[in-house]
Amino acid sequence: MPGKGAYCRFRTSITDYEQMLPIIAWQHLAMIFCFKLNARIISILDPFWCSILMQENWRNFLQTQHAVIENDQVAHFGNLVTELKHAQTGTILVDLSHYGLLGISGVDAKMFLQNQLSCDVNAVNIHRAQYGSYCTPKGRVLVNFMVMQNDCDWLLQFPIDLCASIQKRLSMFVLRSKVEIKDRSRQWVRIGVAGKQAETLAKTVAGTAKRDFDDARALSVVHSAQTSIVRHASDRYEIITTEKSAHALWRLLSAGACPAGAACWRWREIHDGIPVVTAATQEQFLPQMINLDLIGGVSFKKGCYPGQEIVARTQYLGKLKRRMYLARIETAEVVNEGDDVFCAETQNQSCGTVVNAAPSPQGGYDVLAVIQQSSVAAGGLCWQEPGGLELGIGTLPYSLE
């Protein structure tokens, strides 16, 4: 049993603790204040962390709208089959976060890009975007993209999983140029609208700038407060905005369009004949093989860029043997980028490669595939193996001649 001395020491410790309570409380408040101050400082001094927070907020918002996210992209909003039907006959609303944005800025940015890309960067301005590609010295496409101008930045939009490697490669050639290359993917929210009501919805977002939509050319760009709108086609638009504005815009647009997964946007791109080189197909094609010369992605009048000599020689000597075609495969199996195409003419040797594939509203898959022109003329195209499932050739919205 403790004695009186122990009891006195116990009472003394209690008294000391009571006297320390105000100090502990102030320390706790100070810690909270410092944490909030540090968070504020981080948001001011480090745009990277701020952009991550904005992207997370946007993803959380999409999930409240019933988005199912798989592999860092919106797979669907509950029923992919229904969404694909809307992509074909109605109007769809798609989050485009599966595309990244690489920002190039600085005094020498325009000249730097002109010397690196296959397209004529001089033709790009705040009202006009363009397709293009970045090639190896052998003329093989590392990445293809849409390039646009936004204030002082030039933005290249292409698959987000290629951003880090392309940023690293481009940075190797900056040298003494006054150029800065940064990943801007998290800084902007991209929303796609496609289908019968796409133009009406895009004009609603544009507001007072809608008169600029009189420019019927593809890749024309209009701007309104905190928002830019790219016209990919007469029935397909892309809205680029801040995360703060994106929530209200999504709610507005979803009243007239069906929210849909990334596959639905890919299906629309495929039927517009717009290729997207992925990690599976890097360095496999010349720009002309994926029809970039037919959609304004190659300039034959500009100066040198990596691979220019081979690209130009192929153009002027008429040695191009492969082109990209729209095709259909009736299968329940998954069709992947990089899959081989065969033909009776070539027997066991591949005559083509799948560039892009997306589930079709009618079942099976619709694809863009680079195929030998002679094999297309001969017929009997098969997927994955000789004698495999047939590839039915479709019609692109532009001529291959």
What can you tell me about this protein's structure?
The structure is a single chain. Helix 1 (4-45) packs across helix 2, helix 2 packs parallel to helix 7 and helix 3 packs parallel to helix 8. This protein has 10 helices and 19 strands. It is α+β, with helices and mostly antiparallel strands and 401 residues long. A 6-stranded mixed beta sheet has the order 10-11-12-9-3-13, with helices on both faces.
Rounded radius of gyration (Å): 27 Å
Give me the secondary-structure category. Answer: alpha+beta
Read across the widest sheet, the strand sequence of neighbours is 10-11-12-9-3-13
Q: Total strand count, please?
A: 19
Unreliably modeled segments: 6-14, 32-45
Please work out how many helical segments DSSP would assign.
10
State the share of residues found in helices, binned by percent.
25-40%
The span between the termini is: 103 Å
Overall average residue pLDDT: 88
Q: What sequence of helices (H) and strands (E) makes up the elements?
A: HHEEHEEHEEEHEEHEEEHEHHEEEEHEE
Strand content: 25-35%
User: What global shape is seen?
Assistant: globular
Largest sheet: 6 strands, mixed
Task: List the topology elements.
Layout: H1 4-45, H2 47-64, E1 68-70, E2 73-76, H3 80-89, E3 91-95, E4 99-105, H4 109-114, E5 130-135, E6 141-150, E7 153-159, H5 163-171, E8 180-183, E9 189-195, H6 198-206, E10 220-224, E11 227-233, E12 236-241, H7 243-254, E13 258-260, H8 262-271, H9 308-317, E14 322-329, E15 340-343, E16 352-359, E17 365-372, H10 373-378, E18 381-383, E19 391-393
Helix pairs in contact: 1-2, 2-7, 3-8
